[in-house]
Write a structure and sequence with these properties.
This protein has 365 residues and is of the alpha/beta class. The chain has 12 helices and 16 strands. The N and C termini lie far apart (46 Å). The strands form 4 sheets. It has a 7-stranded mixed beta sheet with strand order 6-5-4-7-10-15-16, with helices on both faces. A 4-stranded mixed beta sheet has the order 11-8-9-14, covered by helices on one side. The structure holds 5-S-methyl-1-O-phosphono-5-thio-D-ribulose (MRU). 5-S-methyl-1-O-phosphono-5-thio-D-ribulose binds next to helix 2 and strand 9.
Length: 365
């Protein structure tokens, strides 16, 4: 079956995903049979992007429940699955949100198998609707800019991949773009390549190609130059965790785009599913754990050779050491607004709780 989502279930009630490490050169499907498969898929970035990490972890718990029942294991096995999945990646809060949702559903259930299956499916369906609605609320921003552009395309710069591949369907950043395109509004996307994992060149460019959206790949350092020359109408990025104060953790390099946007009066928007809000913390700079990954992701680059083979090559002296911070934090003062599934709001506590009053009393603050 050809996938039309990034994660789906099979007739024998297992889970399948797209191996995103192989894109854009080949579309390969991977079956998850155990919770360890789900954990490895998250760790290895076979799946990535905050909402998809959460959905994969949720299905990981379903698989753990199934293993527990089939292999007659006790509750310690399930506890281990929760703690292994919890440790799979540190920054995207959707992982913890999804695991907490699975835990409380199971704590109130007498039928673990059907509860975990249903709750994972619910997380997936909710994400699809959230992303669709981010598009509904983001569309007027693009329309407003388009109305002043005399039929010239609206120029949008994005970083990393906050498209369908980071979610289930639609994507967060791509949802308003797709909805604008579907309405006949001319858009053009500047795609940051997003070193070291190249989610921009490998994934965002792939998605935009599939949807027929005009786009141009740029090196990560080009955005400032484009903004200085009036070639960007808005910056639109995703988020892995947004604090009560409106600080946004996203892929490393996002902060530099925000600085350049600020210096050039270019609006800087964050597409924010409420599942990425962490209302238990305020200060993004001190309270968000920033993932550090293997230095070889920086030292080597992978791509397709002219003979069609995929290869990885060293791009620095063998003995040079590299640092590999996966995310950075953009302080709320640089963010024009958050585009959420309930509307657009300022990146601050008042803006967030006006749209999400149920979050005003979250513990930990
Ligand atoms: O390291 P990744 O690829 O998981 O990082 C992904 C991002 O930073 C995305 O911008 C973010 O998760 C939003 S996905 C809708």
């Amino acid at each position: 079956m050809r996938p039309f989502r990034t994660i789906w279930t099979t007739e024998d009630r297992f889970v399948e995903i797209i191996d995103q490490r192989k894109l854009p050169h080949s579309l390969e499907i991977m079956k998850l049979l155990t919770y360890k498969d789900a954990e490895i898929a998250i760790k290895s970035m076979t799946v990535r992007g905050a909402p998809l990490i959460g959905a994969t972890a949720a299905y990981g718990i379903y698989l753990a429940v199934r293993e527990m029942i089939e292999n007659e294991r006790d509750g310690d096995f399930l506890d281990q699955a929760f703690s292994d999945l919890r440790a799979s990646r540190p920054t995207a809060v959707n992982l913890f949100w999804a695991l907490n949702k699975m835990r409380s559903a199971l704590d109130n259930s007498a039928d673990f198998l059907s509860t975990s299956w249903d709750m994972a499916a619910q997380i997936v369906e909710e994400d699809i609707e959230i992303c669709r609605m981010i598009g509904v609320h983001g569309l007027p921003i693009i329309e407003e800019i388009a109305s002043k552009k005399m039929n010239e395309p609206v120029q949008i710069l994005t970083h990393c991949n906050a498209g369908m591949l980071g979610c289930i369907e639609w994507g967060t950043v791509t949802s308003p773009i797709y909805q604008a395109h579907n309405k006949g509004i001319k858009v053009h996307v500047w795609v940051d390549e997003t070193r070291p994992r190249n989610q921009g060149s490998n994934l965002t460019a792939y998605e935009l190609t599939k949807h027929g959206i005009p786009h141009t790949l740029i090196v990560d350092n080009a955005g400032g130059h484009l903004m200085q020359h009036g070639m960007v109408d808005l910056v639109l990025v995703g988020t892995d965790r947004t604090t009560r104060n409106g600080d946004v953790a996203n892929k490393i390099g996002t902060y530099l785009k925000a600085l350049a946007a600020n210096d050039n009066n270019v609006p800087f928007y964050v597409a924010l599913p409420s599942t990425t809000l962490d209302m238990t913390i305020r200060d993004g700079l001190t309270e968000i754990t920033i993932e550090e990954r293997d230095q070889n992701e920086v030292k080597y680059i992978t791509g397709k050779r002219s003979d069609g083979q995929i290869d990885s090559v060293l791009i620095c002296p063998e003995t040079t050491s590299a640092s590999n911070y996966g995310f950075d934090v953009t302080p709320s003062k640089y963010i024009t607004a958050l585009i959420t599934e309930r509307g657009v709001c300022p990146a601050n506590e008042m803006g967030i709780v006006t749209l999400f009053p149920e979050f005003s009393q979250i513990e930990g603050v």
